[in-house]
Design brief:
Length: about 130
């Protein structure tokens, strides 16, 4: 099997995922997943598609990621892995789609408006 690549995005994080058959090595920016995502919850989010399909030890995953915060990066990795697994085996599509892993979460931060301190917050109104 050749290397399959896919792209995952979330907020301003972009993850390029390279999936190949192997022993289950998971590297992110040339570091192990435990070194990059230090909390168990972020590691769980990144591994969700592999755990769902029970293929955790069958594929090697290499990820290059930049931008955003660690939560957005973990969710970008999840989307990228899901898309790569879908390319590798189209039979995985139904399970991934049902779990919601193939959908791009398009919510991003709303821009700040002029004359206001933040996007929605406004300065105190004074009638007189």
């Amino acid at each position: 099997m050749e290397v399959i690549n896919a792209l995952g995005r979330r907020k301003s994080a972009v993850a390029r995922v390279y999936l190949s058959e192997g022993k289950g090595n998971f590297t992110i920016n040339n570091r192990g997943i435990e070194d990059f995502f230090t909390t168990k919850s972020l590691q769980y989010i990144a591994n969700q598609p592999l755990n769902l399909l029970e293929v955790k030890g069958k594929y090697d995953v290499k990820v290059n990621i930049y931008g955003g915060g660690i939560k957005g990066q973990a969710e970008a990795v999840r989307l990228g892995i899901s898309r790569a697994l879908n390319k590798a085996n189209p039979e995985f599509r139904d399970a991934l789609k049902k779990a919601g892993f193939l959908m791009r979460d398009s919510r991003v931060v709303e821009r700040k408006k002029p004359g206001q301190p933040k996007a929605r917050k406004q300065f105190q109104f004074s009638k007189r």
